[in-house]
Amino acid sequence: MRNAETQAAKKQCYLIAIGDAAHIAKNQAEMYSSMSRSATWPWKKKEYQIRAATAFEIFEVLSQNQNKLTDKAENEIFTPWYERDLPQSLNTGVVRWFRREEGHGYIQPKSGDFDIFVGMAAVERAGLSTLNTGQTIEYEVVSRHGGRWEADNLKIKRS
User: Fold this and answer.
1) What are the C-alpha distances in Å from 56 to residues 9, 26, 51, 159?
2) pTM to 2 decimals?
3) Shortest CA distance to 138 belongs to which of 98, 110, 113?
4) pLDDT tens for residues 19-57?
5) Count of CB atoms within 10 A of residue 111's CB?
6) What CA–CA distance (Å, rounded) separates 115 from 89?
7) Which residues share a beta bridge with 138?
């Protein structure tokens, strides 16, 4: 019962935060509208009009969706990162980019999930010197550095 009460309280806090964000977006829209009316330079006037329109769109989306909280969103919001399920243990993906000088890059999973960070240490552990953009790789997802998901146990997939 206590867990259900906690979830209800968290949901209420979330809805309040959405309401606050909607209020802030509306204030931003009004501010930029006012600034666009008083701007003397045409390019500044246009910039403020675009910012006002964007802020107003954000306000509309937040206002309409304030009370619609899907199960997936609830899970993402209320489940701590360390309790969430990691993606499948063996994945296939394509190197989105990798910069040896910076020592990291990202892999885009074939499953369409979020991009996975890959560090130089994982590349070196796999016996590789670098990764090339567009290269297909198999990898495992591991949790490191305070919960950030990273690719490890890399293997180049031959076509």
Assistant:
1) 29, 6, 8, 49
2) 0.46
3) 110
4) 777 777 778 878 878 887 887 777 777 777 777 777 777
5) 11
6) 15
7) 92, 155
> Which DSSP symbol is given to 153?
E
Contact 83, 99 (CB under 8 A): no
- Alpha-carbon separation of residue 51 from 10, 28, 65, 144 (angstroms): 32, 8, 21, 38
Task: Tell me how many degrees the CA angle 123-126-132 measures, rounded to the nearest 5.
Answer: 45
Distance from C-alpha of 127 to C-alpha of 35, rounded to nearest angstrom:
57
Mean confidence (pLDDT) of the chain: 77
Do you know the residue count of the chain? 159
Task: Locate 15 and state its tokens.
Answer: 């809805």
d(CA 153, CA 151) in angstroms, rounded, equals 7
Nearest to 139 by CA among 149, 154, 119, 159: 154
